Model the fold of this input.
Amino acid sequence: MVFKKFSITFAAVLLLSNLNASSVLELMGAFDSPNAFTARIISTGAEAAYFNPAYIVMQEDSFKLGFGMMIQSKTIRHFDKPSGYDVSEEIYSASSSEISGNGKYVPLATSDLINKRGSADYDTFDGIITVGAVKSIIKNWLGAGVYALIPVAGIQTQEPFFNDEREQYFSNSLHFELYGDRLKQFSMAFALGGKVGDFLKLGAGLSVSTYTVTQNRVFVPDGTDPKTQIINSKMKVGSSVSPYFSFVANPFLGFNLTGTFHFPRNTGVVELNNEMQVWNWDYDDGKGGTTKKGYLESNSRMTAGYQPIKFSIGMFYDFVVAGYTISPMAAFEWSRWSTYINRHGEKPIDKWEDVFSGMGGLHVKHRQRKAAIDLAYIPSPVPAQDGRENYIDNDRLGFSVGYTEYFHFESFSIGGGINSSVQWLLTRTEMKANEKERPEKDGGLVDEFPDDAVNYADMAAGFPTAKGLQTNNPGFPGWESSGFVMGIGISVEVLY
Done:
């Protein structure tokens, strides 16, 4: 009977839920919990709805509200660009076919780039509201939980960028791959937790990723005046479901084994289809000729955040000493980053690596008080960036501490908590390989003004400035990255 009710309720959640979970929870952890980095091992509040829903059935009915600040302070130090590597204005005298083949993009003269190299700002200060609740469905057998993280500045921010020489047209800067706009997204999770026998608890939840499909149809009455346009746009917003599962096993007194499994998901996916028709314009008919019937079509895809498959296994032991429950804990987490897709829906040329992360801590509970301290090490999945690409990510060392105290009244209790976490982005240095060490055909730097470019204005003269490597790649010749991400929060919890 219990299993039947569990199945019916979870099926209803799968069909009706319109919730979203994003990268914020994975990168920041349980923002309003005493143990931010080990919430998958021990969850004592509504954060269990995302990190380990098996804990939901063990909790009292509650409502939780929190407010926090997230501080990102990150630094990229560009190494000085040697002389002789800029793209000269002579490139405008070359045929575009000479400089844009084989997947290359037509470069600009370095002096004509809109933004100065390395002009992006990486420091941010953002407010976050957390909301969570736990409710018993069948007392001591089945419970439901919800957990939300809401950026104060907006539901979602999307700031895509390219990870190679194409970024010269836009910011002309390097960007941290897993931070920035990925930490400015609305996140929400809904889950169920049930008890199966005396020693096993199971949990299941949902994260639903939103996507947008946009079709823009543009008519240009005068091809010589592209500023005059007639535009019609069609937009569709949908969602896709990504489930996750967990367990908590207690094979013998005091010892606890936990496990979680989160399926991969894309958040904030935008698919763009642009159709442009120009009056009295000849179009490629796809058969080697032209026609005046048709339109120019372009398609693109952007993804605000990608999270891979994640699997964790953890354990802790409860020691009871003089009324204190002291629980040392440890866990390992495997993340399948080798399937990573960037903000433009592209797979990296240099395949990312699957990584194992480690975290541990100490959780202490005494009557109406609980406190915790955590340590975590999360290695970067990004390989050496010595070629065309500029994926910037650092190994992280995390530390968190938190304290919560409860005040009991006749029919309810109120708890107040304060929590803080910091992740240091350990200094990382990258240097680009030269043409002999890594040729362009093998993913090395693109020679944007190739030596054999034809000068149609003076066939005999050629282009003296084209000899050797010329590149506007913002990652050339290398960089050093470091920084930290800090979270500080307070919370109020009502148990009833």
Q: What stands out?
A: The chain has one domain: 2-81+117-432+473-495.
